[in-house]
Design brief:
Elements: H1 17-25, E1 36-42, E2 45-53, E3 57-64, E4 77-78, E5 84-90, E6 97-104, E7 109-112, E8 128-129, H2 140-149, E9 157-161, E10 168-169, E11 175-176, H3 179-193, E12 197-200, E13 204-205, E14 218-222, H4 229-241, E15 245-250, H5 276-279, E16 280-281, E17 286-287, H6 294-309, E18 315-318, H7 321-325, H8 347-363, E19 368-371, E20 393-395, H9 397-408, H10 418-422, E21 433-437, H11 449-452, H12 457-473, E22 477-481, H13 506-524, E23 538-542, E24 550-556, E25 559-561, E26 564-566, E27 585-591, E28 597-604, E29 609-615, E30 631-633, E31 644-650, E32 654-660
Parallel strand pairs: 9-12, 9-22, 12-15, 15-18, 18-19, 19-20, 20-21, 21-22
Antiparallel strand pairs: 1-2, 2-5, 3-6, 4-5, 6-7, 6-8, 10-11, 13-14, 16-17, 23-24, 24-27, 25-26, 27-32, 28-31, 29-30, 29-32
Length: about 650
């Protein structure tokens, strides 16, 4: 520890003139290496260098447990006109707790946590902690090959997890697992389930646990609730060593107004817009970033780089993109300010998102960015040079809502809502979609997934198995929130564990096995993932049988063209130049009624034996055991406009997958 008389050295800096220029220009994306607190040795003296952006401050000092929280003993020095205050304090070491005391030019005084701190006290405490990002990684094998795991033609099945409630320790006051405790347990389960990626709800530091991490104050720090930054890195490392990718839910759309955070940081609206019609979010009571300010752009993109660089994160799911794109998002007339053209597009946010995606894919080309964008904004997942926003993928929120609405109907009424099942294919290839069944659908009185399903106890499980089967039949990547895979009855509660005891019940365990087998088949069969974003990989057999509430479709793998494999749609070639590679074909048939359908005929494109890969009505999944004894031989009977057809038994409330052998 140092005493309150220790001097602050002003001739130590980590900021070059280039750093300052790029920061003020909005092009410095490694601020975590320059701002914040950094331990170093100067002239043989160990200490910590501090740097913070506060351009409208008249006085900035560092106060903490090392100086008795004295606001006057360790002042920082302004670095010219850059807005940065800096200084080196001897004797400050790792673990020291601190805040900045800021006095604005107007006399406003406040204590602020460090915006670029790598660690914070465990909430509800709010001070920053001197820390580092050093870690010895053991995931080199994963990092070398992760590009193929994140590729558009790769199987991507994501398990969405809230770190604090996936599994708790009832014997120890119902506490959450630490990052290190979570690592082997979560990894083993994800491997057992066959998921390719884990997506964590925000682990960025946040003061209110009930925000689930979406009200972020520490944009460069894993929450200290579960351990240190190195403990979080260990969790990522462990997952990587077992071939599991890690996606982080990341929130650049808004931040909370807590006094220790970014809001009104230096006595002015530094990070946010001053006008509440631009800078205040009515839905969440939070502040909206000023995307047109260069330094703010540097700050936010630096946060993204930190997680991708220092924490080896494989992808970022960007939350609430729609709220960024529209100036009138969730606002009434008169509560928002139009742009310079008089329209409702947030031009600064659009430019920021494009800049963000360009920067990420330039620096980390083997990662992925995913937009949670709930409107029909076009070209979200198309390159910026084509006019798109540049994301790699986009959540298909419309599919989630339409399908859940359909499934919640009693089967006798589903024939009147058939369009809710099939409408998606009118736009399915406009974006690179992820199909989510996310946490948002199992909170705030919406009920759990299984509780949304109609019918008696058995039918609820059969319906949910059908929903999952239909999800995996669609052209898109997949995401399922924890607990849904085994039919948790309760809505998700962030302050308690999942109901793991339910797996002792054969119906819940059968549902879990079904999801695991869906993941296994999805990964093994290239037809189910290789052309997720190409219309040549999907073909309806019959999407019009609304009277029976059935649909049938085909998924196809890569096209063989003149002996060369490639993702080329046959519609772009002469008919005689392509062959649909029938051995890569998977047929999926869905029956959304409780009536079994015997001698159900469905057209297929080729003769031969069609093996039954999966049947959600199998007894091992909790079904009635009705099926096709391993497969069906195609008959040369034209049907559905195809030269061959199958005569199958279609089980009740079930989805069946067949592969041409």
């Amino acid at each position: 520890m140092v005493t309150t008389q220790s001097a602050v050295s002003t001739n130590v800096t980590l900021l070059t003139e280039d750093d300052l220029y790029l920061f003020n220009e909005g092009s410095h994306f490694n601020l975590y290496e320059k701002l914040g607190s950094h331990q170093l040795t100067h002239n043989g003296v160990e200490g910590t260098y501090f740097a913070v952006w506060a351009p409208n401050a008249a006085y900035v000092s560092v106060k903490g447990d090392f100086n008795g929280w004295n606001r006057d003993s360790h002042p920082l020095t302004a670095r010219g006109y850059t807005g940065i205050w800096e200084g080196f304090i001897p004797g400050i070491s790792k673990g020291v707790i601190y805040k900045y005391h800021i006095v604005s030019q107007g006399g406003y005084e406040v204590e602020k946590a460090d915006p670029v701190a790598l660690a914070y006290e465990v909430p509800p405490k709010t001070a920053s902690v001197v820390w580092d990002s050093e870690y010895t990684w053991k995931d080199s094998e994963w990092m070398e090959k992760r590009q193929k795991h994140n590729a558009l033609d790769a199987p991507i099945a994501i398990y969405e997890v809230h770190t604090g409630s996936w599994m708790r320790v009832p014997e120890d006051g119902n506490r959450s697992l630490s990052y290190r405790e979570l690592a082997p347990k979560l990894t083993e389960y994800v491997q057992q389930m066959g998921y390719t990626h884990v997506e964590f709800l925000p682990v960025t530091e946040h003061p209110f646990f009930g925000s689930w991490g979406y009200q972020t104050t520490g944009f460069f720090a894993p929450t200290s609730r579960y351990g240190t930054p190195q403990d979080f890195m260990y969790l990522v490392d462990y997952l990587h060593q077992h071939d599991i990718g890690v996606i982080l839910d990341w929130v650049p759309s808004h931040f909370p107004t807590d006094q220790h955070g970014l809001s009104y940081f230096d006595g002015t609206h530094l990070y946010e817009h001053a006008d509440p019609r631009q800078g205040y979010h009515p839905d969440w009571g939070s502040s909206i970033f000023n995307y047109g300010r260069n330094e703010v752009s540097s700050f936010i993109i630096s946060s993204a780089f930190f997680w991708l660089d220092k924490c080896h994160i494989d992808g970022l799911r960007v939350d609430a993109v729609a709220s960024m794109l529209y100036l009138d998002y969730s606002r009434k007339q008169g509560e928002w300010i139009p742009n310079q053209h008089g329209t409702n597009e947030n031009l600064e946010a659009i430019a920021f998102l494009r800049r963000f995606n360009e920067a990420v894919y330039q620096r980390f080309p083997d990662t992925v960015t995913i937009a949670e964008e709930s409107t029909s904004w076009s070209m979200v997942s198309r390159p910026t040079f084509l006019g798109g926003l540049g994301f790699g993928m986009k959540w298909d929120m419309g599919w989630m809502h339409d399908t859940l609405n359909y499934m919640s109907n009693d089967p006798i009424h589903r024939k009147y809502h058939h369009n809710s099942l099939t409408f998606r294919m009118l736009y399915a290839f406009n974006e690179n979609f992820v199909l989510p069944l996310s946490h948002d659908e199992v909170v705030h009185g919406k009920g759990s997934l299984i509780d949304k399903m109609p019918g008696d106890y058995w039918q609820k499980f059969a319906n949910l198995r059908s929903l999952f089967g239909y999800m995996y039949a669609q052209s898109a990547k997949k995401l399922l929130f924890m607990g849904g895979e085994f039919g948790q009855w309760q809505e998700w509660k962030h302050d308690s564990s999942l109901d793991w005891h339910l797996l002792e019940n054969p119906m819940h365990e059968g549902l879990r096995k079904w999801v695991a087998d869906l993941n296994r088949t999805y990964r093994q069969e290239s037809a189910l993932h290789e052309l997720d974003f190409d219309p040549s990989g999907f073909e309806w057999i019959d999407c019009n049988d609304s009277q029976n509430s059935t649909i049938s479709l085909i998924r196809k793998g890569s096209i063989q063209v003149s002996g060369v494999k490639g993702e080329i749609s046959p519609t772009r070639l002469e008919p005689e130049a392509w062959n649909p590679n029938p051995t890569g074909t998977v047929l999926i048939i869905c029956n959304f009624t409780p009536l079994p359908r015997f001698n159900y005929r469905v057209g297929v494109p080729a003769g031969g034996f069609w093996q039954e890969l999966l049947n959600s009505d199998a007894s091992e999944y909790g079904g009635s055991g009705l099926g096709n004894l391993g497969g069906v031989q195609a008959e040369e009977i034209p049907y559905h406009g195809r030269p061959y057809s199958l005569n199958i038994t279609l089980p009740p409330l079930a989805v069946a997958f067949f592969k041409l052998c």
